[in-house]
Amino acid sequence: MKKENLNTINNSGFKAPKDYFEGLEDAILTQAKLEAHSKTVSFKVPDNYFETIEDSIVAKLNKPEPKVFNLFSKKVITSVSSIAAAIVLLFSLNLFKSTPTLENLDTATVENYILDEIEINELDLLIDTSELSQNDFINYDLIEIDDYIDDIELNDLYQD
To answer: Which residue windows are transmembrane per the record (predicted)?
Structure first.
């Protein structure tokens, strides 16, 4: 490497950025204004603050405590529960329901109830045997049955 003499160097190696000197004056003035504002104290304690602070704290501590009301007192609980009981009683009574009558019942509903809910042993409880007799059910004439059987054709009984 060749040693160069300092007197012969034409280029210093340092360059200023493009348009550096155009905004330099404004930047320096802005920085000076910021430094001037930063040296002033913006927070200030009021006069005689530390002499009167103790008295104001003691005055706040000596205030009477406010009266506290219980939200769930016995009176409130009893009144709310009595209203709830009255509403439950109102809806549990059959005030809004109509009672079913025999005219309102559908035959299919009664049959389904008997088939689903009642066992065969309990069916005799539904029928009052004192009012029934065997003659009520067996009232036929043999001549009429023979005529009926003769009128039936075998083709009518046979289904495809």
So the answer is: 76-96
In a domain, 33, yes or no: no
Determine, yes or no, domain membership for 157. no
End-to-end CA distance of the chain: 122
3-state SS of 80-132 is HHHHHHHHHHHHHCCCCCCCCCCCCCCHHHHHHHHHHHCCHHHHHHHCCCCCC
- Cα angle 22, 28, 34; round to 5: 140
Q: Give domain status of residue 52, yes or no.
A: no
**How many domains, in total, are found in the chain?**
1
- Please give the helix or strand (H or E) that residue 52 lies within, else none: helix 49-61
The pLDDT averaged over each successive group of 10 residues in the chain (160 residues) is 68 78 87 80 83 89 81 87 92 72 79 78 70 67 71 66
Question: Which residue in this structure is represented by tokens 């939200």?
Answer: 71
Range of the domain at 117: 105-140
Does residue 129 sit within a domain? yes
**Distance between CA 127 and CA 133 in Å, rounded?**
12
The single residue listed with the structure tokens 């004192």 is 130
> Is the distance from CB of 126 to CB of 134 less than 8 angstroms?
no
